[in-house]
Amino acid sequence: MRRKTALITGASRGLGKSLALVFSSNGYNIILHGRDEGRLNSVRQEVLKSKVDCYVVIGDITEEQTIINLTNCAEKADIDILINNAGVYFQKPVDETSPYELKNLLNVNLLSPILLTKGIFEIFKKKSSGLIININSVAGKSFGQLESAYCASKHGLRGFMGSFQFEALKYNVPIINIYSGAMSTDMTAERGDTEKFIRTEEAARFIFEMSRDYSSMRISEIDIFRKIY
To answer: For the chain, what percent of residues have pLDDT higher than 90?
Structure first.
């Protein structure tokens, strides 16, 4: 049987790494993306233990060439699933937020996944199949103090993907949006109570189950909250 292929952005650590290991252990070829070559190669070595193919694309997700490289690799590997996981967290008063910080945040969390999705969708259209999974945040549905810019980026992603799904479904390409609460990653380490946060390994296993091709239903939005507060 032909192996399916999953592309995971921001896969050098945290949830992205956990997703790569779960999907590869279930027989998926993997395309890893990230900026840290050393960490990506380390993840690649773990993925290869599952006897699957593993490709690495290194680059800043906000750069056009990185999007091009990812799209080209995805086409060659005959991609089946795109997981938009790369993102940054930002918490700061608006009057202290510089134009550069705001633009960078929107580029990483909003514009980059839109542009990558646009490129990958052209591949899915030719196949009349595919799946797009967006790792969003509960901030994409709610509001948080000192999170104005961050919430804007996540609300924007929800708005785009929620509307785009109607175009994608015409080509048998469902979109699953994951809205996650605090997860135990490097981004949340400074908060100090990470032992109460969602474990990436557990979240990755759940997301994999959501990615299955069900015969009579599709999943649109999933909220994941931590159990302990």
So the answer is: 88
